[in-house]
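hey can u check if this looks right to u? its 197 residues, i copy pasted from the old doc so theres a chance i mangled smth
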Amino acid sequence: MVHQHRIQPLSGKCLRAVACIAALMSVSAFPGAAIAEHPTARHTTSAGQVVYKDRLSTAWENWSWDSTVSFRNANPTFSGRASVAVTFKKAWAGFSLRATKPIKLAPSTVLSFRVHGGTGSPKLLSLTIQESDSGEPVGEYEFTAAPDTWTEVTRTLESLGSPAQVARITIKDNSGSPQSTFYLDDIRLTPAKPTSR
């Protein structure tokens, strides 16, 4: 006598279990495979740059004029072993740093540095950004370097005219006369910190 066995259909729970086992086997067989139901958005941010910290970055060059500049000044320094000593020999002289390749940064990027006014009278200075070697400055910020102390200067690129790219950073005489030595340290371009909501 031949016995016939009726195959019972799988229940809903069994079907779900089989599907889970199949999925696990698929992932283990292909370790690189991944299923993302909610892919994470990728945000591109501009990295900051250290322009000067004990030495001038290789991505920047000294294009100053009518000035004496030393990038290895030992005293005073804000931090580290060296600062930049700048002496303006003529009226409207400039301490100017040129990027070997113009860089594109977000308008919220912060240009910051420390300045020491040296001895004697406060130094009358102005900060400008250029988008190219021959282009006019896109914005200007006038400031004073107080003597015998370090002061921090911070400006967003937006406040300096929102340049499409940064080719030169310049600190110029704003007094119309030669000026004695002042000092700069810790020159940076830093992405703005995200605001908390």
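The two ends are 79 Å apart (CA to CA).
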